[in-house]
Amino acid sequence: MLKQIFTPFLLSLLFVSLANCGPSPETKDLQVKAKQIIGALPAKMPGSENDTSELISLGKKLYFEKKLSLNETQSCNSCHNVEGKGAGVDNLPTSPGAFGKNGDRNSPTVLNAGFHFVQFWDGRAADLKAQAKGPILNPVEMAMPSEKEVLKRLNEDAQYPALFAKAYPNDKTPVTYENLAGAIAAFERTLITPSRFDDFINGDHKAISKAEQDGFKAFISAGCTSCHSGNLLGGNSYRKMGQVNEYKTNDLGLYNVTKKAEDKFFFKVPSLRNIALTGPYLHDGQVKTLEDAVKKMAYHQLGMNLSEEETKKIVTFLGTLSDKTRTN
To answer: Which residues belong to the active site?
Structure first.
């Protein structure tokens, strides 16, 4: 008799428990919006289908190679640190070069960079390979005098000639500047950083908390997605710095590349992935905290004065975009 009474009761408890395990209608709706407006980060970068393990291995060695700077003090990793929990930046306003002089822009993260539509703040390089060629010969950064000098160092090294030959088995002369840049780009194409927000988009409704979900709603409500959309939450367009309210800067941005008056003060919209780890912020590195960056962008780009509560909510959401292996 007791068994007959308790069995339906226990089953009803089980059904209630299972129902409570699923996402609420509100969370489901938010997941749909996240998928539509943002979308999960792809598992592979464009161009990586042709990258061999030998090419990636060579690229990684070159990425950390200080012989690529004139006084052998600087590597790609010096300004774009990917070691340990490094988020592909040096966390400085602007970066010192091989001889101590600083550049005039904040070093953007190399993480997920191969998904961007162009490289550098002003888009002067079309892709990772073109980008990799620049800093080595830049007099302020790595300061090598010529491609010829770079290749001389590599050819005189005990390991590089053989490593280039393995990475480029069909090339009669594998040690070239073009191949150096191609190898670095291949390594950088491995720097993909899936986040908890991707897990949320892909169906795990528990991947981000209620507070973080509220932050995403605040992010949408404030209009942040007018610039920061797509699976990078940016990195796919140019925008004028000071679109609504002027932002004082002497940097003319895209104009320096195109020389078109209408391009003055336009910069590539940065990706917000790993943004909680990559301060200080903006092209000049003058904004120290993420809270201030959110407030300033709302004011200068959207004409809004966010409250402390709204700012806190958005910052809470932005924390979900960090690489899961680089957060504590």
So the answer is: 141
